[in-house]
Amino acid sequence: MRGHVRERSPGHWAIILDARDPQTGKRKRRWHSFAGTKREAQVKCAQLIAEAQGGGAVDPSRVTLNEYLDRFERDWASLHTTVASAQRYARSLAYARRHLGDRRLQALRAADLAALYATLSRAGLAPRTVKHAHNVLHRALEQAKLWGLLRDNPAAMAKPPSIPDEERAILQPERARDLLERLRRQPLYLLASLALATGLRRSEALALRWRDVDLDARRLTVEQALEQTATHGIRTKGPKTRHGRRTISLPAHIVAELRSHWRAQQEQRLALGMGKAPVDGLVLAAIDGRPQSPDAISTAWGRLMGEIGMPEITLHSLRHTHASMLIAAGVDILTISRRLGHANPTITLSVYGHLIHGTDDRAAQIMDQVFGNGSKRVADSGGRPENTR
What we know:
Blueprint: E1 2-9, E2 12-20, E3 27-35, H1 38-53, H2 65-80, H3 83-100, H4 110-122, H5 127-146, H6 173-183, H7 189-198, H8 202-206, E4 213-214, E5 219-222, E6 225-229, E7 233-237, E8 246-249, H9 252-271, H10 294-307, H11 315-328, H12 333-340, H13 345-352, H14 359-380
Antiparallel strand pairs: 1-2, 2-3, 4-5, 5-8, 6-7
């Protein structure tokens, strides 16, 4: 590869790189604009040649951020994420599209993203929303690097606003029992009881089939989840992560409640002339046997919580409560992680680690047992350590 500089106007230079296409053998010319002295332009020219020969250069392109994001959503997000996640990606990328969409992709700088985050924050967006917009844009621009469209990812050098610590709504055992008592004979009772006893996500509980439940062995298996999107409506999908496929032991009271629910469901179906429920029928099916809408369930839950004076308790709070009760009982973090279906225990610790108390006192007791007697011998000798020779 060869290169030279050509002055366009005082202080402005064209850096021209000539190379041969390895496949066609034809000459390929790249043009770069540069402002500065001739010597600086020559140094820049040498840098560009070195980058090209080292495989670190990218071809200049006038593709805009909007044009690239169209490709990213079509060729990456649609293939590597669920439909619901792809829709969340699109919503988050809409902020960058609106404010920076006409900017050339290769002209995008970290300062532009910092200004974007500041603009969104001033407009009243929550720090968590801005942080998610940053995370998705970072992922999109990282893919542009892998596709050879960018040399550097500007989002890697831009910092979104920090998210303030928030207390997760967790029920104490007495309040959890009170909640179930208030929900008894309500349509959402079994969902709440199941979530508290197993830590299932809303989508997992609503997709649970009778074939996934072994009442004699007191176990259930999570094989699928329910997803609701604007594109496809309600449909089943795999669990959130590979570790989401799991088997959970059931407490005796839940086994009894599931048996009672199964009998009531069969009686209702027979009364409606629908016949006995198939083995792949849903445990928490709608009256016609079809899946219930996750969004409608969340709406009904929020309305019900407002009526009983617990508006801060979401369905996901029941999952947090399940984990907190296990931690308080001294169950090891690996077992809790597997029960919750987390990808690894690190996630469990990051979410619930602040709830683990008492273990530091135990650590001090262990150290005292190991070193306490030795420390006493040193003290008894007037602070002089014993001769070890």
